[in-house]
C-alpha cells in the first residue's frame, strides 16, 4: 500500500469514528426519563391534629362489669332478642382490615377471623345456625354511632371497653384482652414509645391508641387512617416510621410482612367487649350467655388456637365480671 493510499484509508476510518460519536439523534435526545413519583396515601389519611385538652375520662366503677345472663327458664321479656329472631338474621358490625380478627380469606373471599367466629357463636345460640349473619363493614370511628342508630345489632371489632364509651353504648363481658404496643421496621432503632419523638406514626381514627400515642409521644407526628390495613400500606411505603395499636392487631400486621416487629412493653390494657345498643339489655344478657358457654365448653380456646396462633398458645379466657 502506498503512503498516500494508507493516509486516505486512515482519514476515512477516523471520519467514521467521529461520525459515530456525533450528537444523538432527536429520538434518543427526547426519550422519556423515568421519574420516581411518591406513592399515594390511602384514602382518608390525614395528619391528626394535636390532642385537645379534655377533662379526665369519666368514672364508672369497673367498666368491664356487664349484665348477668338470664337463666334458661327466665320469664323476663326479651324484646330485642325477639326482634332479631323475627328478622331471621343477626346484623354484625366489623371490618375486613384486622388480620387474624376479621379479614377476607384470599382463597374464598369469605370474612373470617377470631371476631367473626365469636359473632358466629352468638348467631348459633340465637338461631341454632351460625351462618344467620349479615355483616356491615365499619371503620373504627363508626362503631359507636352504628349501635346508637341501630344500623347493626352488635359490634364485634376489637373494641376496647371503657367508661367514655359506656356513657353511650353497652358492652358484653370481656372476650379478649390485648395491650397497646409499637410496630417498627427491623433495624430501625425504634425500641418502644420513647423512640417516637420526631417520627411519623400511624394509628387508626376513632381508637384509644391514637390519643394515647399523642399523650405519650407528643413530639411524634401521627398519621390518622381509616383502617389497620392502611397502616400496613404506609409502613411498607416508608411513609411512616412506626404503627401503634393493640398487640393483637399488630401481630396480624407483622404476620403479613417479615420485615416488621413488635417492640417495647405494653402501654395499656385493652379489654375487648361486644358493643350493643344501651337500651337492649336483654341482648347484652343473651350475648353474655354465649360468652359464658364458649368459655366453659372449650370453644373459646379452639377459636383462639385457630386464628390467633401468632400470639402463642391459647391462655385461659378472660374471667367475666357482672354488675348484678
Automatic annotation (TrEMBL):
SUPFAM superfamilies: Periplasmic binding protein-like II. Residues 1-22 form the signal peptide. Coiled coil: none annotated. It comes from the Bacteria. It holds the Pfam family SBP_bac_3. Keywords: Signal, Transport. Residues 89-311 form the Solute-binding protein family 3/N-terminal domain. PANTHER family: ABC TRANSPORTER GLUTAMINE-BINDING PROTEIN GLNH, AMINO ACID ABC TRANSPORTER PERMEASE. Belongs to the bacterial solute-binding protein 3 family. This is Transporter substrate-binding domain-containing protein. It comes from Rhodococcus gannanensis.
